[in-house]
Design a protein that fits this description.
The protein has about 290 residues and is α+β, with helices and mostly antiparallel strands. It is built from six helices and twelve strands. A hairpin with a 4-residue loop joins strand 11 and strand 12. The longest helix has about 55 residues.
């Protein structure tokens, strides 16, 4: 039994133990390289996210409109319905960024009521104002409900009556009007407010919203249109740059350590009267 145990011990140390040591060494190096790879990948993703945050503007803004008006004699509307919207964020920064062209679109939901049908066309006026309230520019567009014949209204009501009864659908029309196609604000006079006015005091509106869309061009258009491809390319570029930087840093540090150990030569400089150190080219090899 003792001889058998000695045989197993010698067999383990002679045949198995070298493989165990080699496997342990490879596992440590694999973990070390994996952690380095994970660190560089995290830094690359963070750099791309930082670039995207500061370089890309917000593509779309949806702002709800709250229309107000004045009432005379407790029953008559004495003013046009209007809504005043602030174009500043909570942190006092401007909603419209400098150097970008914006498309401003008005969306309204109007009921198919008899007053709206008899109303016909009505004028929509948009006024862009600076921070002090001065008008920068304005635009006017015409709106009206789409015409439907009496027979078409009856057929539409009969077909959609189950949805209308249970409230899944309403008899309304969605109106859309492009107020500004390509608005670029003056860098010296930032736009702080926009005023929307419906110049008819008989118009009936369920709700309204303002849609502001930025026009993207060049690299911004590519990043927005293909976000996944752009993100992969940006992270890969940052990963390559950081890997090259770390590789050059590692080579420089290793060359210095080799030069301090056994690769340095001292030469005498006659013009300065002092010795200077020269690191041979072989020190830069790994």
């Amino acid at each position: 039994m003792r001889l058998f145990i000695e045989f197993l011990t010698k067999y383990f140390f002679v045949l198995v133990y070298p493989y165990y040591v080699t496997g342990k060494f490879l596992l440590k190096r694999l973990i070390k390289y994996f952690l380095k790879f994970l660190l560089i990948l995290t830094l690359s993703s963070f750099l791309y996210y930082t670039f995207y945050y500061f370089y890309m503007p917000v593509y779309r803004h949806d702002i709800p409109l709250d229309f107000t008006f004045r009432v005379c004699n407790m029953k008559e509307i004495c003013s046009y319905p209007s809504a005043n919207i602030s174009l500043t964020r909570d942190d006092k920064s401007m909603l419209l960024e400098r150097g970008h062209a914006y498309k401003i679109v008005l969306h309204l939901e109007a009921p198919e009521s008899q007053p709206n049908k008899e109303l016909g066309m009505f004028l929509t006026v948009a006024k862009l104002q600076d921070i002090e309230g001065n008008i920068v520019t304005s635009a006017s567009k015409l709106l009206m409900l789409r015409y439907r014949s009496y027979l078409l209204e009856i057929m539409n009501t009969l077909i959609y009556s189950p949805w209308l009864v249970f409230g899944f659908q309403e008899q309304l029309q969605r109106l859309r009007s492009t107020l500004f196609e390509r608005y670029v604000q003056d860098p010296h006079v930032p736009t702080g407010y926009i005023n929307i006015e419906l110049q008819n005091n008989q118009v009936q509106i369920y709700s309204g919203r303002l849609e502001i869309i930025v026009h993207l061009a060049g690299l911004r258009h590519l990043i927005y249109s293909w976000p996944i491809v752009s993100a992969l390319f940006g992270v890969a570029w940052n990963f390559l740059f950081l890997s090259l930087f770390l590789l050059l840093t590692w080579c420089s540090c290793r060359s210095r350590s080799r030069g301090e150990d056994d690769g340095e030569e001292e030469l005498f400089s006659p013009d300065r009267g002092q010795h200077r150190r020269v690191v041979p080219c072989d020190a830069f090899l790994p």
